[in-house]
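tool_call: predict_structure(chain=1)
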Amino acid sequence: MSNRIPQPFAPLVQLLANNAAGAATHGATINLKQNTEAAIRLDLTALTGTPAGPDNVPPAVPGLKSLWNSAKTAKITSSAGFRTAQSNGRALAMACIGTLKLVLGNQWNSAWNEAGFTGGSLGVSGNPLVMLQQLGAYYEANPTREVADVNGIACTAVACNAAATAVSAAESASNNANTKAGTAQANLRAGLTNGRNRGSGLLTELTQLLDASDPRWLAFGFDMPGHPAGPDVPANVTVTPGGPGSHILFIHWSDARRADGYRATVTDPATGTVLAEQLTQDAEVAIANLTGGATVNITVSARNATGESQPSAPVTAIVP
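tool_result:
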């Protein structure tokens, strides 16, 4: 369908930028009321943010997409820190258990209750926080059973308490990062919805203000409804082979204007024979079950209700 409001971030931002430019040039002339340049830029800026001024005055304001990217990075970093703290804590707990076996027995028995092992097992859980706290308390009550160096690990009250604190802090940081990531994701989703609604609202308003063949539609980033056009030829086609022996090619390309879907075609470069073909609505596809070691050409064409574009320039790849 012509003048479809895009869903992904990048093409939506491009459309909103075109919408704002058109509103700046023609808004007053055509008596645009609801979806003015100011209103469009408000939704656009929410998504993209604003760059810093000269000498960082005023400072940059991150957009919802940037905030989501930062939150994802913080989540990954915090999760890794939590896993590291847990791993270090488990290693310490296991070393301490090893030294205490000389005193409390090689297998669990009631004597281990004093050290906090009240569940009938000497196993170390995935999150050793409570176990480290109990070992720390045990060593405080029994300092003579501390061992300062077990292959570079100190089995002491101070070490256990410090490890417990590290696990607790890392867990709190990870939980906090997860919460912030969820908030940032929700905010971005809301911003995208606002942007799409803005583009849709402008499209509806222009339908009331402009003739279907008025060329000013183009200034707003839309096609003239009275002259439906076919989709652009997909650009920037890339092909990435899968792992050795996978017989898979991963194909990506840039979103094409006016495209409702795409056709990816794999051909024999020597004969032009079609080896595989796949339809998709996304600007990416994975084509499997190709012949390993074969040299192939890949082209992509865009499709909408008016027809299909010419295929992109062929990209040559070797099937893994």
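agent: The CA atoms of residues 22 and 219 lie 5 Å apart. Proceeding to next step.
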